[in-house]
Each structure stands twice: as C-alpha cells, then as structure tokens.
Amino acid sequence: GQQVMQIPQYQHVQEGEDFTTYCNSSTTLSNIQWYKQRPGGHPVFLIQLVKSGEVKKQKRLTFQFGEAKKNSSLHITATQTTDVGTYFCAGRTSGGSNYKLTFGKGTLLTVNP
Amino acid sequence: KAGVTQTPRYLIKTRGQQVTLSCSPISGHRSVSWYQQTPGQGLQFLFEYFSETQRNKGNFPGRFSGRQFSNSRSEMNVSTLELGDSALYLCASSLRLDSSYGYTFGSGTRLTVV
Question: Which of chain A's residues have a Cβ under 8 Å away from the Cβ of B43?
Fold first, then answer.
C-alpha cells in the first residue's frame, strides 16, 4: 500500500535557526497536505499543494511539492518558540474512489529560546 | 462556526469491554474520517464516511467499526477492547470527500484500556 515517509523524526533548534522537514511517498501523489499539531493538541491544517513543482509561502513557512509529485518539504525560516509542535505531511493518491489521506509519522520540532 | 466535537474527551475501559465514540462534524461537512494516533505509529487511518456510506477503510481488525447518520454525525465502535487499543482517536471532517480544503480535526477522545 501507499507509504509516506517523513524525516527527520525529531529536530531541535535554537530560536532563530531554520528548520526543514521532508516527506517522500512510495507512489505518485495527486496532492499533499501539511498539518501542525501542538503538544497536547490536535492536527491543524496548514496548506495543500496540488501542482508539480508548486511552491507556496505562509509568512516564514515555505512549502514545496516535487516535480515528480512524490516528495514535498516544509521549511521554516528563523524559527520561533511558537513553531514548536509536530509537523505532518499527508499524501493522497489519485484514481478511483480511494480518497484516504496517508499521513507521515511527523517531525517533532522543539525550539530552544 | 462550531468546530468538530468529539465526545467523550477521556475514557477508561477494561480489557474485553466495548466502547462507542462520537463525532459531530462542522455544519455542512459531509465527510468524516477517523484516525488512531499513538506515539509509535503516528496517525493511522481507520475509516471514512460520506453521506452515510463508508467510502474507505484502513487496515484495522473487524473489532473496529463505524457509522454515519443522516445529519453527518459519526460514531465509531471498538468491541472486545485490548490493551493495544489505548490511543488518541481523532475525528476529522471535510467539506468534500477528497478533502481538498483540508481536514478539520476534533480534539480527540483519549482512550485508555486497563
């Protein structure tokens, strides 16, 4: 079945440093979504990428979707303590009625003030 | 508008018992998905309902079941509970079956099986 791998599993940074998490799928994706889960909270939708090579920005966050639509990345510039949490990617394959999202295991980001 | 509401928030059950969890999606959302979240396995897909029909099912044993009502509210049931069923169960609703506007998750039900 479809697998979505995410690395690294953990990342600890000093406040102000950059952070990147990578997501790789075993199959071509129709779209990929990113979520953030704060400690003790629930996942919150950040963004969806659909087009090959797409790049979207949200303030200090930059999301990319690979040309082959099998990988994606989330980059945070100049991290802040409010960025702490687990970042999940979730990929969806196309075709038929199989719309389920497959989540990566997430990258836990901790930020040292 | 109100978010996704899951009840109860916490639950402690004994092995062998059964449990029913409830999820009320955002008004107008007809798609409801259920996920099991554990520290080791991350978010594991259980099933998805749309217009009262199960559209997708994950790789969980038949002890896990669900349903969706005409008002889009959903329930999931776990029978013959095992210690390994201890987890955070998250419900997510979306406007469309392909969740092209993203999922909105509830706060979850923390199930502990003792």
Answer: 43, 88, 90, 103, 106
Residue entry with tokens 């038949």: B62
**A43·B59 Cβ contact <8 A:** no
- Tell which residue, B68, B76, B104, B107, has the closest CA to residue B90: B107
Beta strands in chain A (DSSP E): 4-7, 10-14, 19-25, 31-37, 44-49, 55-58, 61-65, 71-76, 85-92, 102-103, 107-112
| Residue contact A102–B45, C-beta within 8 A | yes
Joined tokens for residue A66 = 């690979």
Partner residue facing B48 (CB), from A41, A100, A106: A100
Pairing between strand B10-13 and B109-113?
Answer: parallel
Among all residues of chain A, which has the CA nearest to that of B39?
Answer: A105
Q: What pLDDT shows up at residue A110?
A: 98
Distance CA A40, CA B54 (A): 29
Residue B82 to residue B86: CA distance in whole angstroms: 8
DSSP A71-101: EEEEEESS--GGG-EEEEEEEE--STT----
At A99 the pLDDT is: 65
Predicted pLDDT at B11? 97
| Residue A5 binned pLDDT confidence (cut-offs 50, 70, 90) | very high
